Amino acid sequence: MDKLGPPRAGQLLIAADPGKGGFFDRSVVLILEHNESGTLGVVLNRVSEMDVPSPLADWAPLLSPPAVPFEGGPVSEQAVVALAQLANAQAGPPGWKPLFDDVGIVDLDTPVELVEGAFAHVRMYVGLAGWEGGQLEGELIRGFWVRTKARSEEVFGLPTGLWRRVLRRLGGASARWSTWTGTPMFN
Which segments of the protein form a coiled coil according to its record (predicted)? Predict the structure, then answer.
């Protein structure tokens, strides 16, 4: 496929063709799971205007700024996923499953009191980004996405400008895309 091999959890997908419109325009997706059945991820840079869902209100004080759920994607819009970065080099608390480095997925059914103080950052996502088996690979071949290894500061940093920052980090043609405006005649 490329030097990164097949898609896998802990990689970022960066939308490679700005200005096409649609949900994934200028999006950065963190892959949570990839297997022959398909791929699931969350969009890292789509802040929502919704409140934390009522059944998960206990988690609201743990959320990193901006302390609102993000729009994780257009698939399974009722699904809620949380990502968390460990506060220090320790074994993860109950309900935490490692994804990459010190970043993992948190089971939101875990009582909050069992994880208080365990995380430096927590983000919540409503909805998922999803691809059927082979679909993402096809989109990668057609150049719809650029991939790279995720960094914790990209998952928990400011969502504004994330697409541009990741493309600049990659350099080359990807860095040039980061300068594109929403108006094609100005590119």
Answer: none
The β-bridge relationship of strands 103-106 and 38-43 is unpaired
The pTM score is: 0.91
Q: Which CATH superfamily is domain 11-186 in?
A: VC0467-like (3.40.1740.10)
- Evaluate whether 159 touches 46 at the Cβ level (below 8 Å): yes
Q: In the prediction, which pLDDT does 187 show? A: 43
Q: What is the DSSP string of 45-68?
A: T-B-SPPPPGGGGGGGGGPPSS-S
Look up residue 97 and give its two tokens: 């499953």
Q: Is the pLDDT of residue 178 over 60?
A: no
- The arithmetic mean of pLDDT across residues 67-94, rounded, is 92
Helix (H) or strand (E) segment spanning residue 167 = helix 162-170
